[in-house]
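Data card: per-record layout.
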Amino acid sequence: MAGHDDDEDEDVVVRDSNGAELKSGDSVHVIKDLPVKGSSIVIKRGTMIKNIRLTNNPEQIECNADKVKGLVLKTCFLKKV
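The structure for this 81-residue chain is written out next.
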């Protein structure tokens, strides 16, 4: 059964706001100012996020920004570099 779960993860295609396929380790730009929940920090439009990590959800990625570590961002606000 565990092997079947791994196959499902590989079949999930994660796409940015323009439809480009994202993979773990890619770099992306933020296309809109995003306030960070639980903090007064705002991730500004144009901020580059390097070395993203894919999640089980095709609409979200994990990443680290300059000011915030352990962020989860929606792919609709990202553009692949």
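Known properties of this structure: The CA atoms of residues 5 and 11 lie 10 Å apart. The beta strands are 14-15, 21-22, 28-30, 34-35, 42-43, 48-49, 53-54, 60-63, 71-74, 78-80.

See the next section for split statistics.
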